[in-house]
From TrEMBL:
<protein>
    <submittedName>
        <fullName>Helix-turn-helix domain-containing protein</fullName>
    </submittedName>
</protein>
<dbReference type="InterPro" id="IPR036388">
    <property type="entry name" value="WH-like_DNA-bd_sf"/>
</dbReference>
<dbReference type="InterPro" id="IPR011991">
    <property type="entry name" value="ArsR-like_HTH"/>
</dbReference>
<dbReference type="Pfam" id="PF12840">
    <property type="entry name" value="HTH_20"/>
</dbReference>
<dbReference type="InterPro" id="IPR036390">
    <property type="entry name" value="WH_DNA-bd_sf"/>
</dbReference>
Amino acid sequence: MKDVEYLERLEQAEALLKPQRVDVLRQLAEPRSCTEVAAVLDQTPQRVYYHVKRLVEAGLVKQVSERKVRAVSEGVYQASARSYWLSPGLVGRIGPRAARDELSLGYLIDLMEEVQSDVAALDRAAPELPSIGVSGEIRVEPERRQEFLDELKTTLQDLFTRYGGAEGDAFKLAVACYPKGEARD
């Protein structure tokens, strides 16, 4: 089972739009039959099988084995991943792309889409994935905002210059700075 499945096909997203299918998918974190899932969700095995069949068609669930129960073959299914990311490209851009202004929300959204796609494409089975994630909150007085942004940009440009040679392992560095919204529960 993959850790993350990056969904880029519309059929995959559509398969997840039904809350009942998400419930079934959660039950299939471990291998189970439709009968077992039906008992947990208080549904009929036929109804669960209908949803499992759609999830299999979308590539979100796989049949992992088969067993005989009272002379009847019963499939055992498991989710293909522990979590699923929907590609922002599924909806696509509405209207023309604005100029790439580094201080715009549109640029930040494009950057996050690129990061999401890049991370999803990493080989999680690789023995080593040297990476780092850093997140923090800072507070900047409004009159010092431009000074902060200029200093951040200069610091990053210095790193790009120092480590931007043609030799060695290639890494991508993406930095996002945005106003912190209200806390969500």
